[in-house]
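Case study 2.
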Amino acid sequence: MIAPAVPPRTRQSLDLPALLRQAVAFDQEGRLAEADALCRRILAAVPDQFDALHVLSHVCERAGRLEEAVAFGRKALNQRPKSVETMKTLGNALARLGRVDEAIARYEKALALDPRHFGVLNNLGMVLQADWHFEQASACYQRALAANPDFAGTINNLGICELALQRPAAAIEQFRRAQALEPDYAVAHYNEAVALLLAGDYASGWPKFETRWETPATKPGRYVGSLPLWLGDKEIVGKTILLWSEQGFGDTLQFVRYAPLVAARGARVILSVQAPLASLMKTLAGAVEVHAQGDELPAADFYCPLMSLPLAFGTTVETIPDRVPYLAADPVKAARWRERLEALPGRRVGLVWFGSSRLAASAVNNPDRRRSLAIAELAPLAGVAGMSFVSLQLGKPVWGASSPPAGLVVHDWTAEIEDFSDTAALVAGLDLVISVDTSTAHLAGAMGKPVWLLNRFDTCWRWLLEREDSPWYPTLRQFRQPKPGDWNAVVASVAAALTSFAPG
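Prediction:
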């Protein structure tokens, strides 16, 4: 880095080249607080010093202080408007803030100056992918790999994009290519498993799915005790086995169906689940003892994560244990809700239009954002006669049913819901649940309730491809986006189907 000329006394008091070299070194070593302090020391003496502004923007972006990163990046660009690296850092910060259009504009301006810049191409691909532009993202990744063909991370990103485009075979090819370059690349191994499962190749997919434990996203849910792992390979008659809930609520609701099957093999089953699910799980059949995560657990002989049970049982698409219901509502709670619901005319239809609360924190390539829609997009449902809509939407009030589109009346009693047993009691009194891909869809399916899934184009592996039904839930019907981000077509199809569902 070359420092601009400064007044003689400032030059004597600060060795700018040395300080800047040290700040860059601290940044590269992850010593962000020290890099930050050095840059601010330089800027206190020379407020417009480009290199210090650039490094400080990068440090702030890495530290998650994104608004500061944007501010310092813009100041740096005021000094050097054609700095591609500064544009990249600024684009990264804007993307993480959810300001997608601004981020794309910055990356494209950088590429106009340097069309083969690998980092910009890769990051632009990630933002385009997060914004449903999968074909454009794929083109960016391919351009990036033309400049740097052996970068496993970008190859993995290309595979993810191919998966989003419903091309699992092409995705698998890319994930294996990344693994060939980096054999211990856990994320690429896990992504290959997801692609295999999406393609319905459960025989290959479930064993590969065990690589999830090496990925940063899944490690926190791993069982950390000393029990031996059971994967169906040991006799468990008279033994006690701990079934461990490892990921989201929907995952627990889907795979807890195996707990009674484990008990049927002669084992005492200890089931550890997220606290909001504990009460509901006590309705499972069989010798299943339910505990909330964090409780002191009884002694056991083995453990198995819930999402490893399909492997333990050798599950294929044809042999999925699909008997429903396997969960039920508390009859006392259900009776209270039924009395209220029976006052509503016509069919009683539950609605869920948003995914989890992670939507509040924008992140590149966040599926929560893509699987959800705004309540305003449900406006066509208002034109269907004979329906009473009931909100099952939990989360922040801004996501709730307080501002539906004109003509759409949504009854909202969700303030009274404390856990999944309450939600199940409300669902029990409904005729139909319409939901995006979230835990409520799994709950309704597990209860044997008719459920219509509003499914994004880049579907989760569990819903497979080119199906309107689900082998996991016999009462579930899928309404899939015909193209990325096209909720209008989905809602129009649902409205048409509701017309047939209306009471005659």
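DSSP finds 22 helices and ten strands in the chain.
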